[in-house]
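Hi R.,

Here's the input for the magnesium ion complex you asked about:
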Amino acid sequence: MTDKTSPASVTTGRSFNELPLSPGIKETLQQLGYLTMTPIQAASLPIALAGHDLIAQAKTGSGKTAAFGLPLLTNLNPRRFAVQAMVLCPTRELADQVTQEIRRLARSADNIKILTLCGGSIMRTQTSSLEHGAHIVVGTPGRIMDHMERGTLNLDALNTLVLDEADRMLDMGFVEDIAFIAKRCPAQRQTLLFSATYPDGIAKLARQFMREPQQVKLTEQHEESKIRQRFYEVSNEGRLQAVGTLLKHYRPVSTLAFCNTKQQCRSLLEALHAQGIKALTLNGDLEQRERDQVLIQFANRSISVLVATDVAARGLDIAQLEAVINVDITPDPEVHIHRIGRTGRAGENGWALSLCSPSDQRRVMTIAQMMGIKPEWHELTEIHSEDEAKLVPPMVTLQILGGRKEKIRPGDVLGALTGEAGYTREQIGKITITDQSTYVAVARNIAHDAVRKLAAGRVKGKTVKVRAL
Ligand code: ADP
Ligand code: MG
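And here is the predicted structure with magnesium ion in place:
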């Protein structure tokens, strides 16, 4: 995926001159045509330049690189030949872009050495560059860890650690690697975390190794209206069938369907399977490993629907949900708000569809009152789902036997698939590594072929057992 963005067009009108930046940097900003700060820069630079840890969220193209690049350069002593700042990025392309932008920002100070450390380049070349001294390293977690483990990257002088595109790093399964790296950085340091979206996993990650981080979040206006809420009147007998009808009509890639009871979850699952819809359910009877597998397949878009009770869905951490369906209306309006708040995140549109029998009317009225809305009623008869094509998830999950215990990393799997096997990065989805297994989502049309190629080839130098779930 390329991330080429046009210059941040929206700025705040606030000048960089109000910030405690060196005259050289101010001059550079002028030359670059950065006349005023973008909103995320105006919100985060005062905090970061004051030395605080920071979690900053803003959409792509909003000028986040300078928002961490300027503090990192300000913390730097060019006369000290040691790595003082490190930026972790999810991919090589992004690491290259960050390196370029920091180089541009650093050009007034001569002799600041910035090194990119990513997989795909020769280790030895990187090692000798490191021996010659670098002030800043930018790289992907896997390769940075390699250097740390071999002792070729010394972080004793590190004063700034940056996690860029943290949400994507989480998606790519780097969470453990990031924790490994952060734990080995000096405790006396500043940590800056940047992300386009804010899935629950980020807060968890931050709690592990950030110190009283301040948070800035630039969300789009009209955030609430991103969730489009519709109510459908159904009879109790028609309720389960109606879920499939809605799915085939709205065609969300990922849907969380809430039922009020475990029994209803089981019944819905049967009804969906009968309609050829890929769905799984979470319940307390599952072993941890089974639960993990369900969540992995849902999060990586290889099943369409996750059916759950409120209890089972507690703590679920899924970034991208196109729809929430209330198969049963909950008696508690707060629970309803919590349920539908799981869709329409990060500026994406989301559907909140609720199925209501006549006896649910009172509940809907309480919900509407609490949310200050007038419920938008629709008829199922408006929908002719017989005409619609089958709903098929875009991805398939492949399970590779062997995981963290075998020291498999996302890069190993990605390498095997994009290297020898010849697939493109776009055909590969989320990679999740557990103790015993590695799960990789691949585009549905290559799944069969990918199983064969992985089984015939090698991952991390070894032959592996693979199956499609
Ligand atoms: P993000 O990391 O948020 O996706 P980038 O840091 O890549 O955004 O910045 C996007 C573009 O905006 C880049 O081309 C960058 O050079 C430009 N840019 C950043 N800050 C400013 C500014 N204050 N004024 C003008 N252009 C800017
Ligand atoms: Mg960026």
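One thing worth noting: Residues 1-9, 221-225 have pLDDT under 50 and may be disordered.

Cheers,
M.
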